[in-house]
Amino acid sequence: MDASGKILKSPLSKGEFLAGRSADSHAVICFRDGRYSVVTTDGFTLDAGETRRGAEAFAPEQVVFLNDLCRPAWLDGQERPAVLRTSAETLPGPDEPDSFGGVQLMAASPDDRYIAMTSEGGTLWIWDRASRQFSDPVPATISPDPNWRYMQPAWDPWCADSTCLVFFSGKNLVVSSSDGKTQRVIANVDRPAGLAVPSPDGMSVAYVSFGAVPSALNPAQKSWGNTAVWVVSMASETAPHQLTAEDPDTTTGLRWLGNDALVFDRIGPNIIKDMHARIWEVSVR
User: Fold this and answer.
1) Can you say how many angstroms the Cα of residue 88 is from the centroid of all Cα atoms in its chain?
2) Which CATH topology does 110-285 take?
3) pLDDT confidence of 139, banded at 50, 70, 90?
4) Cα Rg for the chain, rounded, in angstroms?
5) What is the pLDDT of residue 54?
6) Over 90: is that where the pLDDT of 78 sits?
7) How far apart are CA 137 and CA 208, in angstroms?
8) For the purposes of burial, counting CB atoms within 10 Å of the CB of 31, is it exposed (0-12), middle (13-18) or buried (19 or more)?
9) Residues in contact with 177: Cβ distance below 8 Å, sequence separation at least 6, in sequence order
10) Whether 16 contacts 31, CB under 8 Å
11) How far apart are CA 225 and CA 239, in angstroms?
């Protein structure tokens, strides 16, 4: 769809999740159940294949598109240690055995040099493809919902110029250098939050706050709703500004539309029986 919500082509790919798009916006990258496809915005398949061999339990599904190779890449856990692979080659990896072990999500920097990697345990590493070195691991929260990855949402914490990335570490909203060596806190948030994403011009960071509510499927369990969208300046020490009122539904993804608006989803509490998913836009100015 375009920015107004008009459907231009549907569907591009059936039954697959969306991993992201190419740097030139010409193609989208899809994945599901050990397969991937690269599809142009007019519906032509440029590439497709499988990301693992045979039956492999609990393998990471998501792929990451590397524009310098013009191919999707994924972690192949059937190799011991795990390796980063494309359809054409096994990419150079770390010297330490099993350094890719436990990685569940990946996001490549726009210049393709760095790949941010996270585990379900809430740890973030940055893999430098040029130096073949990992940054020191740091605690990181993509979403406070432990089942967030169930929806297979895309994740992209990188600044457009590849010099930094953003994430939550506890209550702190952190801006990190691309190699992970320097970090600074730009906001301290008094409620659970996540889905931090920098604006294209690098001036602001948007994020979503959450509140724990009884699960629609099991009231004894908690789900994460009462969501609101916020924005904060990356440069100055100003308080975060709340853009939307709290809504009972949850949010799994947040992205910028240029530098003046954000797009995000709202999904009902019973994602199995009555998902009631919607896409919203909110102005930042």
Assistant:
1) 25
2) Methylamine Dehydrogenase; Chain H (2.130.10)
3) very high
4) 18
5) 45
6) no
7) 24
8) buried
9) 163, 164, 183
10) yes
11) 23
What single-letter amino acid sits at 71? R
> Mean pLDDT over residues 177-190, rounded?
94
Query: Do 36 and 52 form a contact (C-beta atoms < 8 A)?
Result: no
How big is the chain, counted in residues? Answer: 285
Closest to 151 (Cα-Cα) out of 9, 266, 28, 2 = 266
Lowest pLDDT segment from 31-40, 146-155, 260-269: 146-155
User: 245 or 212: which carries more pLDDT confidence?
Assistant: 245
- Which of helix, strand or coil describes residue 150? helix
- Cα(199)–Cα(196) distance, integer angstroms: 10
* Single-letter amino acid, residue 265: D
Q: What is the pTM of this model?
A: 0.91
Residue 30: exposure state from Cβ atoms within 10 A (0-12, 13-18, ≥19): buried
- Tell me where in the chain the CATH 2.130.10.10 domain(s) lie: 110-285
| Sequence-separated (6 or more) residues with CB below 8 Å from residue 32 | 15, 16, 17, 61, 152
